[in-house]
Design goal:
single chain; about 240 residues; alpha+beta; five-stranded antiparallel β-sheet; four-stranded antiparallel β-sheet
């Protein structure tokens, strides 16, 4: 079970004689009440199962052949996608580059590994629950040969370990009563982000969440989606193009 400190109820302050390992459980570092009134009383706890639904993947990316043809945008490891999770936590276990994230201008920014850190991404579920206030991250993995070598040596395969934090199975629209202040909602200026959040909300919480998970897999791994679910992939890609305008 994955527990994220900022989603837990406030923990009591530990005493000086407490074992050091108790620090793993708190206390939370809540923002000062004068800065964000009521933040410490907010809780996403009701949106999660106990134990939480989570998925860990162990991923190995092999280097392409040296004579491989490199298409525009690089060789796909994982295509552009948004995770269906609440949050995703990614450990880049090797020094290989390859992870890229799309910014609001549509440009792809390299997210090179930083030792002893996790990449934390916002998923579609959090975007939907917050009405687009939290925008889902759009990543991809580029497997171009340059991401597997340095000037003097080969880096070998790229290993990455993502953990996907899932919301409660069976969560429906009637269960969502997250009250977000209007001045926070007004921070969402991009109408497409709002529309995407509403679309995700309807799809995930009013339709079958398992179907949405399958669609996410098909678009993330389009070579396999094309092989096994061609009609589903075509439908998903057509919907994405319509949304992008």
């Amino acid at each position: 079970m994955l527990i994220i400190p900022c989603l837990r109820l406030k923990c009591p302050t530990l005493g000086l004689d407490e074992p050091l390992y108790r620090n793993l459980g708190g206390p939370n570092q809540w923002p000062d009440e004068t800065v964000i009134p009521g933040f410490g009383n907010a809780s996403f706890k009701k949106f999660f199962d106990v134990p939480q639904q989570g998925k860990l993947k162990l991923v190995k990316y092999l280097a392409p052949p040296e004579d491989a043809t490199i298409p525009e945008g690089g060789i796909q490891g994982v295509g552009p996608h948004q995770d269906g999770s609440f949050l995703t936590f990614l450990l880049q276990a090797t020094p290989n580059s390859g992870l890229e994230v799309q910014n609001k201008n549509g440009d792809w920014i390299k997210a090179n590994p930083i030792p002893e850190t996790l990449v934390v991404s916002i998923g579609q579920s959090l975007q939907a629950l917050t009405g687009g206030v939290c925008t889902a991250t759009t990543p991809r993995v580029n497997l171009s040969l340059e991401n597997f070598v340095t000037s003097c040596r080969s880096l070998g395969p790229r290993y990455s370990f993502p953990v996907f934090q899932g919301v409660k199975i069976g969560l429906e629209a009637k269960d969502i009563d997250l009250k977000i202040p209007q001045h926070i909602k007004d921070l969402v200026k991009n109408e497409k982000v709002k529309s995407k959040a509403e679309t995700t909300f309807n799809a995930v919480f009013r339709e079958n969440i398992v179907d949405r998970g399958l669609i996410s897999r098909a678009t993330s791994h389009q070579d396999m989606g094309r092989r096994w679910y061609p009609e589903l992939l075509d439908m998903a890609l057509h919907a994405e193009r319509d949304f992008a305008g």
